[in-house]
């Protein structure tokens, strides 16, 4: 069987009331022929009720109850998992078989045994179920362009294309890194230090296991003697434990060309008093100390060390006391000297400080990852509600201030929950995240179908959950929070049709804000943001309570039937 799940047909024969032991001991059919349970699950080797095995020896995943047709309505009908055992002792039904969490030392199979407390050994059968072994996930591959003879004196932008980035290791996306091969070779957890450039490809940007991104290598950071590569790894916590996305692509640097005589180049021909400058040199003694002095009245600017190829790059500051005019920077290493002219200009008069202005950063293409609540999803898709979950979250836009730690981003998309033959119909849509420092509000639009004549519910801007934000993670020009704990609010509990109480934990939330151009602050980013701009969902009232009470009665009846 495919471990992801298949529907199988189960037929039986010989399930006849030909012995007193086929009578049940529990309501609603106590003292009558109670047929048999037909179950898919994981059971212990010694599982039979007739041999005294307790219910803890049986882990039931899906269950049907076969009885005589006259008793079908008594146990709740087909909607409650009831099936008919014909007068000749035969039955036919279907079960959904998938690989779930197994009983310790249990055996997967289709089992039958006496229903309603009956302990009749002839009804106890076991048909084993074997799941397919999943195919191994192929190793990912990388392509880097350009990947040879990089010029170390200029900025290099590498295009990195990956394929085969699938499986559990790709749920958080992939890290893309550039550095010397000696930094990390994949033999242990990914190391964070020593890389020249680092990036992150979110899972939303990996399509069918493939992605394309760029890595920028600043000028002057490469050496012709170095050995470099582009590396990838599973992202976030998986970079420590999961090695399925480890891949490497070598990159070479052009051999250094030693000029006949030493040369210097200045970042700009003019530098203001007190201003910063960058000077590069070539043709100096390998690994030699290089002293930099401003003339004509000597002013020491600093010193550096040439590379094995005789090149250096130095960034320094022209003292504010140096007179404006024409000067010369002289570089000396041993007996080798080179010079370069520079014009020093007078520093402008200091301006009156401008009044502080609050600026935020525009957010576009934000990502939002949230499973709502795993137990609720399992309930909807399980044997009681027999429902479905569909939909997904879209990208978002808004603004965020790195100064105040406040912001608001709105996302698209929705999650739709249906079950109980349409009695449960709940949609959560258009999430908004309002960040205020170390916490955030999760705001949703909520729509639910009425039950037993109660009105439908359509509410916008429900303050659904409170997010607890730990220290933000920054990568490039983005800020993110991963697996932020989410707690249901009182308004969210009412909007959730009363399935859970205020304060209950929801699934954690992961959000990422790409930070774009500066924009003026507004009420959501200037540090004075309020939390009262959204509805508190106080208007659900009787409609939600009727929906809850109807569903609760359905759940209680189901649970009483399957207890064993």
Commentary on this structure:
The protein folds into four domains: 123 residues, no CATH class; 111 residues, Immunoglobulin-like; 83 residues, Immunoglobulin-like; 197 residues, no CATH class. The protein contains four helices and 31 strands. An eight-stranded antiparallel β-barrel has the order 23-24-25-26-27-28-30-31. Strands 4-3-2-6-7 form a five-stranded mixed sheet, with no helix packed on it. The C terminus is likely disordered.
Strand content: 35-45%
Tell the overall outline.
elongated
Strand order of the largest sheet: 23-24-25-26-27-28-30-31
Distance between the termini: 27 Å
Largest sheet: 8 strands, antiparallel, barrel
> Rg, please?
35 Å
Assembly of the depicted chains: single chain
Domains (count):
4
The computed structural class is mainly beta
Q: List segments where confidence is low: pLDDT < 50 over at least 5 consecutive residues.
A: 529-533, 535-564
Percentage of helical residues? under 10%
Tally of alpha and pi helices:
4
How many strand units?
31
Mean pLDDT: 88
């Amino acid at each position: 069987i495919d471990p992801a799940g298949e529907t199988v047909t189960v037929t039986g024969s010989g399930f006849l009331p030909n012995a007193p032991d086929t009578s049940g001991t529990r309501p609603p059919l106590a003292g009558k022929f109670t047929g048999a349970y037909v179950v898919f699950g994981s059971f212990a080797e010694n599982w039979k009720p007739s041999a005294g095995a307790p219910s803890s020896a049986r882990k039931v995943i899906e269950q049907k109850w076969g009885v005589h047709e006259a008793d079908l309505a008594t146990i709740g009908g087909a909607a409650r998992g009831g099936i008919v055992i014909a007068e000749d002792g035969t039955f036919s039904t279907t079960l959904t078989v998938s690989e779930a969490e197994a009983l310790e030392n249990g055996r997967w199979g289709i089992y039958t045994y006496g229903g309603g407390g009956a302990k009749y050994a002839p009804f106890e059968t076991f048909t084993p179920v074997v799941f397919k072994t999943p195919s191994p996930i192929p190793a990912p591959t990388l392509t880097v362009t350009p990947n040879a003879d990089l010029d170390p004196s200029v900025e290099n932008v590498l295009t990195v294309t990956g394929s085969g980035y699938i499986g559990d290791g790709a749920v958080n996306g992939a890290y893309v890194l550039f550095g010397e091969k000696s930094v990390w070779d994949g033999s242990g957890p990914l190391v964070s230090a020593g890389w020249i450039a680092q990036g992150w490809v979110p899972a939303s940007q990996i399509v069918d296991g493939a992605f394309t991104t760029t890595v920028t290598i600043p000028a002057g950071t490469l050496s012709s003697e170095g050995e470099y590569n582009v590396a990838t790894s599973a992202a976030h916590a998986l970079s420590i434990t999961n090695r399925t996305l480890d891949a490497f692509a070598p990159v070479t640097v052009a051999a250094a060309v030693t000029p006949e005589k030493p040369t210097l180049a200045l970042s700009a021909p003019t530098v203001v008093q007190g201003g910063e400058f960058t000077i590069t040199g070539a043709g100096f003694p390998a690994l030699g100390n290089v002293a930099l002095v401003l003339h004509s009245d000597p002013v020491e600017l600093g010193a550096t060390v040439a590379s094995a190829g005789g090149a250096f790059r130095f960034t320094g500051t022209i003292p504010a006391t140096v007179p404006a005019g024409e000067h010369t920077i002289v570089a000396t290493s041993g007996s080798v000297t080179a010079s370069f002219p520079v014009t020093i200009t007078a520093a402008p008069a200091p301006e009156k400080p401008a009044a502080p202005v609050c600026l935020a950063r525009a957010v576009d293409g934000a990502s939002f990852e949230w499973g709502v609540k795993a137990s609720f999803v399992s309930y909807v898709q399980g044997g009681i509600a027999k429902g479905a979950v569909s939909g997904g979250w879209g990208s978002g836009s808004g603004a965020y201030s790195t100064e105040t730690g406040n912001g608001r981003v709105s996302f698209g998309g929705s999650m739709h929950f249906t079950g109980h033959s349409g009695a449960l119909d709940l949609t959560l849509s258009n999430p908004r995240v309002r960040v205020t420092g170390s916490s955030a509000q999760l705001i949703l639009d909520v729509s639910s179908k009425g039950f037993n004549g109660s009105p439908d519910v359509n509410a916008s801007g429900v303050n659904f959950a409170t997010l607890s934000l730990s220290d933000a993670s920054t990568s490039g020009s983005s800020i993110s929070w991963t697996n932020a704990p989410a707690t249901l609010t009182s308004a969210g509990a009412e909007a959730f049709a009363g399935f859970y109480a205020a304060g209950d934990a929801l699934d954690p939330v992961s959000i990422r804000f790409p930070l774009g151009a500066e924009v003026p602050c507004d009420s959501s980013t200037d540090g004075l943001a309020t939390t009262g701009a959204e509805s508190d969902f106080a208007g659900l009232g009787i409609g939600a309570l009727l929906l809850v009470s109807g569903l609760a009665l359905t759940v209680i009846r189901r649970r009483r039937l399957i207890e064993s």
